[in-house]
Amino acid sequence: MITADQLVAHAVGDYILQSDWMANEKTKRSLAAAAHALTYALPFLLLRPSIAAFAFIAGTHFLVDRWRLARFVCYAKNFLAPQFTWAADGKTPTALWWFKWEPRYWLQPRSARVAIDVAAHYRGQHTARDL
After folding, report:
1. Beta pairing partners, 93
2. Which three-class secondary structure state does DSSP give residue 86?
3. 8 Å CB contact between 46 and 59
4. Short-list 18, 109, 130, CA closest to 65
5. What is the pLDDT of residue 84?
6. What is the pLDDT of residue 113?
7. Residue 56 lies in a domain
8. Structurally, how many domains does the chain consist of?
9. What is the DSSP code string of the chain?
10. pLDDT mean values, one per 10 residues, the chain (131 residues)
11. Does residue 89 form part of some domain?
12. Is 18 a member of any domain?
């Protein structure tokens, strides 16, 4: 279970404490990603996690942000999603005729990456709580 104090710690660490340098360089340089992961984890110290939990929170944040792991989840979902064939009108997929928008609309890269990135961070926090 994610608690309100974890959400606040996440918001403070990921948005308020992240500098422009960290945001721009964390996917290019490990030093920037490590600096961001450590500053991200600092607000969690107020929740008094164990040393293992603190290391897990910082470590998973480093991995998710440094190598942009959310994009690989999006690619996998797009690859595994069902393929549609279009009806004669060229607008309606025959597999799901009631949908009126593009197939895989919910898997568009930017929105899906943000959601998966946030979910991955929260999953790491939830796992760390049990350490």
Report:
1. 86
2. strand
3. no
4. 18
5. 55
6. 64
7. yes
8. 1
9. ---HHHHHHHHIIIIIS--HHHHHHTTT-HHHHHHHHHHHHGGGGGG---HHHHHHHHHHHHHHHHTTHHHHHHHHHHHHSPP--B-TTSSSBSTTTT--S-TTGGG-HHHHHHHHHHHHHHHHHHHHHT-
10. 84 92 94 96 93 92 88 69 56 49 50 69 72 73
11. no
12. yes
Instruction: Quote the pLDDT of residue 88.
Output: 56
- Pairwise CA distance, residues 57 & 8, whole Å: 14
Is residue 37 within 8 A of residue 61, CB to CB? The reply is yes
Does 21 reside within a domain? yes
For 63, counting Cβ atoms within 10 Å of its Cβ (0-12 exposed, 13-18 middle, 19+ buried), the class is middle
How high is the pLDDT of residue 103? 47
Encoded tokens for 122? 């929260």
Q: Which tokens in the block code for residue 47?
A: 């929740």
The domain in which residue 38 lies consists of 4-80+111-129
pLDDT of 102 reads: 47
The two three-digit tokens of residue 45, written as one number: 């110290």
The model's pTM: 0.68
Under 8 Å between Cβ of 84 and 93: yes
Q: What Rg value do the Cα atoms of the chain yield, rounded? A: 19
